[in-house]
TrEMBL record, chains A, B:
Known pathway: Amino-acid degradation; L-phenylalanine degradation; acetoacetate and fumarate from L-phenylalanine: step 6/6
EC number per UniProt: 3.7.1.2
Keywords: Calcium, Hydrolase, Magnesium, Metal-binding, Phenylalanine catabolism, Tyrosine catabolism
Family: Belongs to the hydratase/decarboxylase family.
Active site: 141 (proton acceptor)
Taxonomy, superkingdom: Bacteria
Pfam families xrefs: FAA_hydrolase (PF01557), FAA_hydrolase_N (PF09298)
Residues annotated as binding Ca(2+): 134, 206, 208, 240
Annotated protein name in UniProt: fumarylacetoacetase
Fumarylacetoacetase-like C-terminal domain location: 140-430
Gene Ontology biological process terms, A to Z: homogentisate catabolic process; L-phenylalanine catabolic process; L-tyrosine catabolic process
Amino acid sequence: MTAHNERRSWVDSANGHPDFSLANLPLGIFSRPGLTPRGGVAIGDRILDLKAALDAGLFDGTARQAAEAASGDSLNAFFALGAPARRALREALQGLLDADSLQRERLQALGETLLQPMAACRLHLPARIGDYTDFYVGIHHATNVGKLFRPDNPLLPNYKYVPIGYHGRASTIDVSGAAVKRPNGQTLAPGASEPSFGPSKRLDYELELGIWIGEGNARGEAIPIAEAGSHVAGFCLLNDWSARDVQAWEYQPLGPFLSKSFATSVSPWVVTAEALEPFRCAQPPRPEGDPRPLPYLWDERDQQAGALDIELEVLLLTDAMREQGLAPQRIALSNTLNMYWTVAQMVAHHSVNGCSLQPGDLFGSGTLSGERPESFGSLLELTQGGKQPLHLPSGETRTFLEDGDEIILKARCRRDGYPSIGFGECRGRVLPAA
Amino acid sequence: MTAHNERRSWVDSANGHPDFSLANLPLGIFSRPGLTPRGGVAIGDRILDLKAALDAGLFDGTARQAAEAASGDSLNAFFALGAPARRALREALQGLLDADSLQRERLQALGETLLQPMAACRLHLPARIGDYTDFYVGIHHATNVGKLFRPDNPLLPNYKYVPIGYHGRASTIDVSGAAVKRPNGQTLAPGASEPSFGPSKRLDYELELGIWIGEGNARGEAIPIAEAGSHVAGFCLLNDWSARDVQAWEYQPLGPFLSKSFATSVSPWVVTAEALEPFRCAQPPRPEGDPRPLPYLWDERDQQAGALDIELEVLLLTDAMREQGLAPQRIALSNTLNMYWTVAQMVAHHSVNGCSLQPGDLFGSGTLSGERPESFGSLLELTQGGKQPLHLPSGETRTFLEDGDEIILKARCRRDGYPSIGFGECRGRVLPAA
């Protein structure tokens, strides 16, 4: 099915592709036996090799500069170029891949040199991540988790003033598909007076939006909120794997540490800010009585068009389901509209103290749960801290993740009259502890 | 004054040098007009240029490999080689620089090509820092800070089981000498019901030991405590600048964020684990009644010889003191023996969940205060949260840092019969907010 205003491509599989039509064109780093890791662009079931496209002389001017920056083994240099370069490359690619492209025959003749079959390629982390920051802007998640500790007063007094965030571990961020070894750690068993050591018994996932920083800011110079959007290169899915029992014991007073630093997974494709333009919308109004944010976090245009309408999904596939030939079971359906703060507010806040953001830095949004259980983005919430097991079509139940369980995050934007934009998948399967 | 067993060098300024005698030989990255940033070794008032030494063919075998890895614009590759390479380079350098070196005349003839005057050089960050982790192992600091919030129960229940730490910001770590712009941020004034925005009014320093990670560990494979020491390349001074008013408002529930991420300063020289060997000692016995740590944190040899005896100093120089020609005033004298956990315990804990440490990662120890006010490593402690001003020889008082104030951290190891080992300085001057 093709949306009425979808441009058609001569790459057949792109037309009506739910994720990677000509309207998306996300960037990533791929390799294939014989091809070292390099920048590529997803189109249908193919990956356009930017190095091969450059060798064929397909780009000029700013688009050429952008393609060169994106053709190495990471996208950092491309991210650093900012929005004009991204736009120029996007327009050039849309022209080249359009069904009516004047160069169509020449490009088709290049065959797999230009367009690698995605299924034969391996995908890598799209950038070298300098710093990773995890936010906490999913207000329903913050409320749900707060309720487990403070039933009467779930949200702390700072929540509606401060886009809460903390520094995460960059060295353990993996691309989708990497297995996740269950972490060992210290935990305090219920009723115990002393901690014990062993594999986490409360392993969980967190459904998050990942945000790739493009152009950085100079040290000491805050990014004004009106300019914050232009510092974002693109988006991905992010699974902030969490060991809840380790977290509960370690997190006071300095925050989560080993309960998170064993693994974070991201989807491989960077869906650009430009591709998501049609899915920008107004930030949902703050509930009656909520304070107005401080001026450095407030921009009318950002409030009117700075939110994102992206459907988010969590699926679970257990070993027993695999054996029974069952498909992954959807266990949550949520949306980025559950963010209490916009991405621009996160960027403005992060830099307001003069902290320098750098191309390739990664933000996580925090868990994006909705208001109702079907939309809860973690097992902690779905099972009420392990008290209400989840029932699976295999006849199994789950409170937290078991070895062999695979979590699959998906994201897609849909809007009447527009081609859909997909993020691809963020997958990770749990392996037994060491 | 030269210790009785100090080896003499033909570099005259090294003999009896309180910081950089032949017994120390710390590594760093330096540049000079006409010389791009490169690895060097401090010796007296000189820096030995490792690239020039390689060009002159001064090293063989493992020492040559180590010097090559250390001769670029960061020490990461050198750190990755681990202890055998560090030892080989150290022995080769001690042989070359010894007063009785057979190559003395040839080396002296190289003059400034080999030995740059330190005063004419600029020092840089010694490594590209992948991840920065700040611990909280100074038990007197944790107790002092805890008392401000919980007078009856200052230490949380996990403190004596868990070497508490959190992820810090890597992009804003500077080398000594870089100015520190006072951060802007959200704070909740005493008695106010809503936060306000502006320059921090409670800017503070924190006296910490910095720990440079050498050889890393494979993802998913914990570093056993008995091997943890061999993953540490060396040490530096670290100032964890802190905006206390921002911190108090933002830190719940996920820990410090913008209150720290505006700046962290480190001293430029990496004092190697080998140079500090004579200053290893037994970990001070745990107070009666303290629990024995879990087995993954316990190693008899580490308890007997894994602590460090390093004298630490904080000095303050204000604008008025500068105008009056006064010297920096010492405001604290402490020691690394105030660490409740050893460095090996920190490394073992950090990796026990499978988190990969990488060459060039940096740890901060946490503030190393002693038991008495003269040894408190932050103004928060020295002034009891701003209630008891510090009196300075200029006639001024301080509760927190004012614009123009400069903080200078120093560290030195002394032991009868051994040459002293100094760390050099970690300096930073406060500039007005943007």
